[in-house]
Amino acid sequence: MLSAKRLLIATILGFLCGLLSWVGARSVAPEAIPWSGVLAIVLSRTVLGFAIGLSAWRVAWWLHGLLLGLIFSLPAAFGGLWVGMGWYPGFVGPLVGGLIIGFLIELITSVGFKARAAGRELGLQDSSRAGATGGGYGEP
To answer: pLDDT digits over 31-46, tens only?
Structure first.
């Protein structure tokens, strides 16, 4: 079941992380970032937050954030290589940034605001699956 609270929190956090990513990109970019680049950076992180809030993928919250951060950062990483930014600032930077941002959005949303996805536990396993034992907080 979709939680409007979770979707809103994750999307707002994605937008804020997009602004922070833009500031970080300005510090490593050799020249000024055009408005289309600013829009792409902020929008990609906002969409990451929206996807995290919308997703009902039944994995641990930390893995969920890391995986979606990686998936949503791949286009920016390959785009950085394509425009000739090099391996670290163009490829590794966006990927590591996406992993960190995905993790932080999920951490703040699921643990900080306690807006967990339906059926997802905070532990390593999902106890709603048949045969699963333990893994959530307060469970043996």
So the answer is: 888 999 999 999 999 9
